[in-house]
Amino acid sequence: MTLCQGYGTADCGCLAYECREKSGMHFTSNAYVEIVDPQTGQPLGPGEPGEVVVTMFNPIYPLIRFGTGDLSAFTDEPCACGRTVPRLTRIMGRVDQITKVKGMFVHPSQADKVVAGFPQVAKYQIVVTREQNNDIMTFDLEMKEQPADTDAFTKEFVAAVLDGIKLRPLVNLLTLGSIVDDGKKIKDERKWD
Ligand SMILES: [Zn+2]
User: Fold this and answer.
1) Could you read off the pLDDT of 27-79 as tens digits, one per residue?
2) How does residue 193 score in pLDDT terms, banded at 50, 70 and 90?
3) How far is the CA of 39 from the centre of ligand 1 (A)?
4) 111: part of which helix (H) or strand (E)?
5) 29 CA from centroid of ligand 1 (Å)
6) How far apart are the first and last CA of the chain?
7) Could you tell me the domains of the chain?
8) Under 8 Å CB-to-CB from 25, ≥6 apart: which residues?
9) For residue 3, how far is its CA from the centre of ligand 1 (angstroms)?
10) Please, are residues 42 and 50 in contact by the beta-carbon 8 Å criterion?
11) 25: CA distance to ligand 1 center in Å?
């Protein structure tokens, strides 16, 4: 027996399902599934993370461009199973957790992935600020112990963030207990006026 994943919502039922290749979840033919920029509603291309938006082809219960609040991305590369329908690559979390920095969406799950590569880090928080019309993303890192070579560690961390999030961060190395636990992994301190 093989176990396959599906993706659906209470309002829409099953929207995507895994084939036996398990390389993403094919869109169902019962609905039109789009990945859109959560702020503008514009459809995004393959590989770009955005909100899953659904239009149902059900005349009794029509839904038009229903925002699921889920964050995902799709691929339209051919699947080994022969189906030509695009696939959701993975569900990355909820849209309300993302923050736009320098025009790029940053989700806590992306940051979790980067930080997981650095076991010396006990806890982190991203602080987004704005100076002279520029977004600044700072990683506050609570260290289990301070690295022997701070510069080397910082360089390595910046490279990992550039690779995983495509943005260059500032890095603050802090001692244990420095980050106030407010449940927010990304703290947006930008003021818009
Ligand atoms: Zn397939």
Assistant:
1) 998 889 999 998 889 999 998 889 999 998 888 888 899 999 999 999 999 99
2) low
3) 31
4) helix 108-116
5) 14
6) 58
7) 6-95 (2.30.38.10), 99-188 (3.30.300.30)
8) 5, 6, 7, 16, 17, 18, 87, 88
9) 14
10) no
11) 8
Starting from the edge strand earliest in sequence, which strands make up the sheet with 63-75, in order?
6-9, 13-18, 25-27, 87-94, 63-75, 50-56, 31-36
The residue assigned the tokens 């602080």 is: 127
CA atoms within 13 A on the CB side of 59: 0
Tokens of 162: 């550039």
pTM of the shown model: 0.69
Element (H, E) at 116: helix 108-116
Query: pLDDT by residue (tens digit) across 145-191?
Result: 999 999 999 999 999 999 999 999 999 999 999 998 877 899 999 98
